[in-house]
Amino acid sequence: MPQSSLDDALTQLVNSELIFQRGSPPDAEYAFKHALVQDVAYSTLLRSRRLQLHARIADVLEKQFLEIVDTQPETLARHCAEAGLVEKAVGYWLEAGKQAIARWALIEAAAQLRIPG
Questions:
Q1: What are φ and ψ of residue 30, in 5° steps?
Q2: What is the pLDDT of residue 117?
Q3: Which residues lie closer than 8 Å to 42 by C-beta, 6 or more apart?
Q4: Mean pLDDT of 95-104
Q5: In angstroms, rounded to a whole number, what is the distance separating the alpha carbons of residues 85 and 88?
Q6: Which of 15, 35, 54, 93 has its CA 20 to 30 A from that of 84?
Q7: What is the pLDDT of residue 68?
Q8: How far apart are CA 41 and CA 9, in angstroms?
């Protein structure tokens, strides 16, 4: 999507009060005002498109936001898992669990290291 179209779409979402804008473009951050709005928007995406988006987010984080990779491996783990990149997700969950153990966040570590089932 061209940058001008993206900017216009984000402005419309902010004006309609569906999302918050923190900061000014190009460094602005956006967040949904309510989790239900986010859930509805997410559910309208086809599964194949969601997989692509999560894979792209993980790729960009790995290549351009190394501080997030180092300090928030759980973020990468979630995107990799949602993208179907299971082996990568497991590695990031393991790192997140190790970091949680190192700071004595044991409940968090247990949640990150558990095997869903």
A1: -125, 145
A2: 53
A3: 50
A4: 84
A5: 6
A6: 35
A7: 92
A8: 14
